[in-house]
Structures are given as C-alpha cells and as structure tokens.
Design brief:
alpha/beta, 7-stranded mixed β-sheet, 6-stranded mixed β-sheet, 8 helices, globular, binds zinc ion, NDM-1-like
C-alpha cells in the first residue's frame, strides 16, 4: 500500500544510497572526530590507558569501520562508550566497541525501554544506507551507567577530565554533551548541527531554542563537533553553528505558531515552515527528509502534547504522505 506513486518525493532518505566521505580529524592530542558529509558524527577521547568513545553508529559493522580508522592512532581499549541520546543510528552499533561501561542520561535509558524497538524500525526504513549489515545488530543497546545532571570521567595522568552534562530537554528528553574543559572542545550530539538540517521529531522545541542552547553556548567552546556536519573550528564557527541551530528552531516556532494562531492546518504549517527555511537550509543534508516529522512534532508540542508521540514505521508513512506529497 505504500508504493512510490503515492508521493512525489522518495520517502525520507530511502533513495539516498551513495556513501559519504568520512574524515578523521585529530582535534587535540588524543581527541578524535569522524565526520561524514552530514551522516552522523562520532568521536573518541584518549585517557591515560583507556579510550572514551562518543556515539556508536547504526550497526556493529558500521562501528567497526570507524574503530579501524581509530586504531591507526591508538590501541587503547574502550572503557567507556558514551551515547548522546537514544536514537538508533547513534546506539545500535554499540556491541562493536567492547566497552566496559555504556553511559547515557537517565531518560535515554527510559526512552530505549519505552520506544527503542519502534525507533529502530522507523530509522531503518528512513535511512537504510546507514544500517550497514543490519543483521549484525544483536538487539537494543542498554546503558549500564546513567545520570541525571552531570558525570565526570578522570582521564588520568595530566589529561584532565571529560565532563558529561545534561543541558535540558532539546533534540530528545535525554540529550547529553561531552565537554573537554582543558581543550575547550565540545561534542554536542544532535543538540547542535553544523551545516546539516535539524531532526526535531522527538524534540522539545521551546526549551531547546532557549535555555538548553543557552547552556551549551555558555561553555564557550573553541571547537564543536555537532551531530552531523563539519567540525566547527574556532569561536566564530562555533557561534555560527549555534546560531544556525537556533535560527532553524526559531523559524519553525514562528511559522508554525503563526499558522496555528490564524486557525490553519498542519499541512499549511508545513508549507509555511518549508518556504521560510528552504532558501537557507534546503540544500543541507536531510532537510527534505526531516521536515515533515519536525513540523508534525512541533504542531503536537504547541497543541499541548507534552511528550513526543512514538514514531512507528506506519506513522512515518502517514505523516510523509500527508505532508510531502
Ligand atoms: Zn538524534
């Protein structure tokens, strides 16, 4: 029933089948980021005799390719795997790391229990290319250590510490960022994107655009690895990435709020948001893919639906066909 003639645009990222170029950058001694032209970013930080890895990618096979690149720089064992939030393309590759501890926010663990299975099916259908050998996934990833506010990892020797912090609700209920005060390097997860569109289908837009991004900005990072897109190097580029993220959310809130106040419909809100964002963001990765899900969630949020409705493969298609056709 979901044949392609029903929509003029291919569903989500299902037609995006070309591999992206991956770039490994050494941001400081023992601090690594792998970016991939708008595909999900990952990172790693060396402790004295161990590694902290940040994000797990969508499958163990995808994660092993990243670990092979990392192994050209360091052979230290992975002690901690840190997950910025619950989304499948960030978590389901975890088994490849052989980590002693998998760390996430308290609410990320709850979200995996509540909707991890549905999110897995949804993301697999939306972004099949990211799921390299999906049969290599052994099951949902369960964090073994969680926290509510802040957790600090002593990196040993004179390497300083890695601070994991929850800045408030944003991209999801349970986002965390990883902050290296000594180098002023921030791994922001999907709370900040750098020249990539925002996915806000599980978001809390009003908090994200204000208090949450205020807390991220207050760190005054000098290098920022967002969830997708290039590394922002230097204060100016970090400010630009934060500004781009805030402006995307601000435009969504303004346009959707305006249509609602005038008694309009979700479809009209989608058209208004699309028209307002397209000139600046239309060419950025996953813009067309994300926008229907983004506006649908924002419409709910402004209607008083406190927590995001669970995305299932069926609901994905319904919203897509209603808005992107
Ligand atoms: Zn995400």
């Amino acid at each position: 029933m979901y044949s392609s003639f029903m929509t003029s645009k291919p569903f989500a990222s299902s037609a995006d089948l070309t591999d992206k170029q991956q770039t490994l950058e050494v941001l400081a001694d023992g601090v690594y980021a792998l970016t991939a032209e708008g595909d999900p970013n990952v990172g790693a930080v060396e402790g004295e005799d161990f590694l902290v890895c940040f994000e797990a990618l969508a499958t163990p096979v995808a994660a092993r390719a990243w670990l092979d690149r990392l192994r050209e720089h360091t052979g230290k064992p992975v002690r901690h795997l840190v997950l910025s939030h619950y989304h499948a393309v960030r978590t389901l590759g975890a088994s490849a790391f052989g980590a002693d501890v998998i760390i996430a926010h308290d609410d990320t663990r709850k979200l995996i229990a509540e909707r991890g299975e549905q999110d897995w099916a949804s993301e697999l259908a939306r972004m099949p290319r990211l799921f390299k050998e999906p049969d290599s996934i052994p099951g949902l990833t369960w964090p073994t250590v969680t926290f509510s506010d802040r957790l600090t990892i002593d990196l040993g020797g004179d390497r300083g510490e890695l601070v994991l912090a929850h800045c408030g609700r944003g991209h999801t209920e349970g986002d965390l960022v990883a902050w290296l005060p000594r180098h002023k390097i921030l791994f922001a997860g999907d709370l900040v994107e750098s020249q990539a569109a925002l996915y806000t289908g599980d978001a809390f837009h009003r908090e994200w655009a204000t208090t949450t991004l205020d807390r991220v900005a207050a760190l005054e990072a000098e290098a920022l690895v967002g969830g997708r897109g290039a590394v922002a190097h230097g204060r100016e580029a970090v400010r630009a990435a934060l500004g781009q993220t805030r402006a995307f959310l601000g435009t969504m809130l303004e346009e959707t709020g305006r249509v609602r106040a005038a008694g309009g419909t979700l479809k009209e809100a989608f058209a208004a948001v699309h028209a307002a964002l397209e000139p600046r963001y239309g060419r950025w990765p996953i813009f067309e893919h994300c926008l229907p899900f983004d506006v649908a969630r924002l419409w709910d949020e402004l209607s008083g639906v406190e927590r995001p409705v669970i995305w299932t493969a069926e609901r994905d298609r319904e919203v897509w066909n209603a808005l992107q056709s």
